[in-house]
Amino acid sequence: MEITRKGSSSNHGRSSIDLSGATASWDNHSQCVVLKKGYVKDFNGNAEHHYEVKISSSDFQAMAVEISSNNKTKDFGGVESFLTSSLRSLIRMVSIASGVYPSEVENESKTINISLKKGSQ
Question: pTM for the whole thing?
Fold first, then answer.
């Protein structure tokens, strides 16, 4: 992930920091995805900072809608290539959203056994 900024009144150009390798987790209390990365060099100095980016559930949903909207995206080639590597995780999210929960997950090379939530069809 890269964060870019530029001045709102006096523009000194764009500055950016790279947050690649940030750890991601779900904060159940705040209902948001939390990305954390430590020891990131400052935009224009030698100082290092710890970054925490929170993506609300509504923002996360908006990103999913934007990426999957075929009305706005005519070429899915770029989207398809990066989503392919996340297919297993995407299938898990779909199963959770539809009320189907993984009952046993061992490792990435094994199959996932799925059980239906009681009352689901």
Answer: 0.64
